[in-house]
Prior knowledge:
It contains three helices and 45 strands. By secondary structure, the chain is mainly beta. The mean pLDDT is 92.
Amino acid sequence: MTNVRDFGAMGDGLADDTAAIEHALHDGGDGLLEFPRGEYRITRTITFDLSKTGRLAIHGSGGTAKLIMHGAGPVFEFLGHHEGSADPNSFKPEVWQSERMPTISQIEIEGKHSEADGVRFNGIMQPTLTGVLIRKVRHAVHVTRRCRNVLISHCHIYHNTGIGVWLDKVNLHQANIVGSHISYNRLGGIRIEGSEIRNLQITGNDIEYNNYRGFNRPEVADVPTAEIYIDCSQGGTVREGTISSNTIQATYSPNGANIRFIGGPSEHAHLTGMWCISSNLIGSQETNVHLTLARGITFEGNYIYSGHNRNLLAEECQNLVIGANCFGHNPDYKDKELCTGIRLVDCQNCTLTGLQIQDAQAGEHTVAGVIPIKRQGLIELIRCRQMTLTGLQVLEGTPFGLYAEDCSETMLTGCSFLDTREQKLTAASIKWTGPGKSNSIAHCRANRGIQVPEHVKVSENLLDE
């Protein structure tokens, strides 16, 4: 163990400890940098070229040590040289010998410069963060270039002006973000841009309030963000991932979302997809889940509530499986109610099965300061094709339970569209408009009637008003 105090670091928060830490790095010799309790002032990025330093770990004495960054850029940057995959046969011997699994654990990083960052991993194999607190920096964890087998676990990534975990122009396979608090990061909790990513697991985290309201900066209110933001519109592909067993929620912010997927151009809608989103609690944002040009996503076992605009909005998506979720609102709001809803636009080859969807009793927004929504129904299908809706329970729709427009090859079977309010606000349980073909409604229950054109085949329904 190399104690940085033995190489001149003071840890008093006053002296510049940068040179002493670099001295310990280069001359300590054993690869484990130990920071005893204290506050270490750092004024420039400390770079670890693993081909020169060899295997490396940084430890902060059980979290009692704090690194305070007074300069621009990351406190630590790790440089690696692995150009292969995770296949053991793709490793050069020197990479495995010197560069695998650099570790940062049990330490705090705090920014004192407007462009201070936390940690950057550049071309690293098996970077590992555990028990790390990063706060008041710009970007907390920045992963770029070519990385493999990233582990971020049991960390606190809190109150940063940029991004919590930024996967930026990275070629990355096998990454786990587990059991961490990621909150109050202005540009997103986890944000992926321009990257080639496979096998990303986001599990068991608390990801919340990553929006401008945490910073009192209304001048940046129009910058779109999300708790989990995946963007392939400018290149890259992000496939083969899971978002499971997380709490993902926020306060309302304009154009905000809790989960946002953006695919590439319409002819490449598969650039983001092959994802499972399950067993999460998701709520209280403008649009809780927003999917654009995505393909092959399963969405089930979640509770989604209080979307100011929509609980789920899907645009130009294909092969979505939306099943066994509960879409609702928070009854604790009482008179401060939010409507809910699902809207699919220009989607095809999708199934909605076993959903429970219930609107707030008022049938409209009663929350001050929220832009009123314009909505035709709790479920809206606009220009959709080859859709199957089975076993849905749709309650208190306003003005309609289901609204379908210009849809074809769409089938409703075994669904209930009911208004159980004392004062009925549903104009019709089902409203279907526009041209289409090969549509049918069968074995459904609707207590406010249905309004459909001739091209929709209606059979054996229970229409009890």
